[in-house]
Amino acid sequence: MSSGISRRNILRTIGIGTALAATGVSLTGCSSTSGPTSLGNQGKDLAPWPTFTPHPVAPAPDLPASDKGVQPGYLTYPKKLTQSVADKPGDGSKVTVWTITWGAPPKPKQKHQLWQALNRALGVDLDLVVVPAGESAQKFATLVAGGSLPDIMCVSANLPNSTELIAAKCQDLTEFLSGDAVKKYPNLAAIPTYAWQASSRIGGRIYRVPVERPRIGHSLYANQERLKQAGIWVPETGGITVDDFTKGLRQISGRRKWAMGAAGAGAFGFNTIVPAFGAPNQWYLKDGRFHTSIETDEFKAGVEQLAAWQKAGVFRPDPLSHDATLMTDFQTGITATVSNSAVTFGSNALAIRDGFTLETVRPFKPSNGAKPGHWFFPGADYQTVLKKAPKARIELLLRVLDFMAAPFGTKEYELINYGVEGTHFTRAADGSPTATQLFLDGDNKDTLGVGFMCSPQTPLFLPASVPGGADMVKRRHAFETEIVAAGSADPSVGLLSRTWNAKLNELQVLKEDAIKAIVMGRKPLSSWDAMVKQWKAAGGDKAADEFSAEYAAAQKA
């Protein structure tokens, strides 16, 4: 059939030069009609999202989840684990996987005991290619150029033009997962709908299986004792003015300790501060049209506040050179607060233990009179796609992903996340796992990257090795329950813009470089408007038009 996608265009747009493109695989013959919206959903029949179905054997949480994104909370480890997968998923065949890690690469399979244990439980031979997350875009381009795709691939929302590749060479999963069809895979059916929506349809069809992440998103973690000492611990949204909060931050900073952690990545944690000034989450809708939040006075007010804090000395000196130590600086008390994602709640608690009381700062009352807000995360920043294959093979691969999505309180979840009892963990008096040195030294799922193959809804749980862990879970759950009332979603989630997919990284760098330049005093606040104009001309306006068209089509569906 004819195609609007050429091999050369795909390879060029994901970062491969002409020389590599000449050796690449043909990607023609599998897309829809040509044109800028050929892979979008405008004018298409939209496949229903998988029917959300709570797992019938998973233990009920002590603190309930909500469809708005509050995580399920567990105060104790389940006394009796359930089996979420009735039969071994595999048939003994090799399953090739391309995935990522944010840590060290794994040991070879013959030396990695968790890798071997997973193979036995799955009934397949996982052939894992694990690449550092920071190198994933470049290495993915090389993978495509090589011409032989693995069975299972982890793709990021930030991977330029991955949509073209997926539409051309990956399996359309609609018949397997749309609507009630997903119930054949009960762990996949228990993934919240918001995670599927964050993965977006392509041409109205379902291609991607989400790697769920908490919808609560980024927040400002805090050392409660230090904020209390400064009189600025107020567990209520809008309960303290930004001026009073700033006075406390200045009081905290000194004697080689600072109030706020900062790093180059994330540009001073702007996505936790700017929302407090009422800025929309990435985009906002007006008369059915998309507009960027960076053009609003509220966003600029947030950037101005960050610059004021830098001038006041609440960030450590040379703040943009501490990416590697950002979290350990917070966990060891060098900084009193740090902006980070919801998935780091557990790792923070485990690292801090009884060093101080871990808490979450509520948005302050801003100086511009706006209602303080909070930005929701889409619900999935990574997804899994499958190479095209016969139906029986696709069903096997989906059974493997279903196993990896086993929920908390199941035997499969324990194996994936904690390993083998007696090898990777021992049990505390309450039954919760305590990691052995083998696990801590890297024989775990993080080095394998299997958490980026698929995952269940992330639970709030802390093992007995964390003093006061149950109370900490209660406090975090209370924060999430409260903050959803102030939270706002990105209206582009679930919509597809080919321009945004191609230009996202470029536009993100443009925005964050401008934030860093203004906060560090290298440019005045007045330079922001020129950056916004440049951002819009570089693809922002075109992406807004495409999102507007997609949104209009979705409203008619």
Question: Could you list some keywords that capture this structure?
Answer:
557 residues, alpha/beta, D-Maltodextrin-Binding Protein, domain 2, 5-stranded mixed sheet, 4-stranded mixed sheet, 21 helices, globular
Evaluate the radius of gyration.
23 Å
How many strands? 15
**At the first level of CATH, what is the class of the largest domain?**
Alpha Beta
What would CATH call the architecture of the largest domain?
3-Layer(aba) Sandwich
Describe the sheet with the most strands: 5 strands, mixed
* Alpha carbon gap, first and last residue: 28 Å
Shape descriptor reads globular
Spatial sequence of strands, sheet with the most strands: 2-1-3-12-4
Mean pLDDT: 90
Strand content: 5-15%
Number of helices: 21
CATH superfamily of the largest domain: Periplasmic binding protein-like II
CATH topology of the largest domain: D-Maltodextrin-Binding Protein, domain 2
Runs in which pLDDT lies below 50 for 5 or more consecutive residues are 1-37
What structural category arises from helix and sheet content?
alpha/beta
**Count of the separate structural domains:** 2
State the share of residues found in helices, binned by percent.
Answer: 25-40%
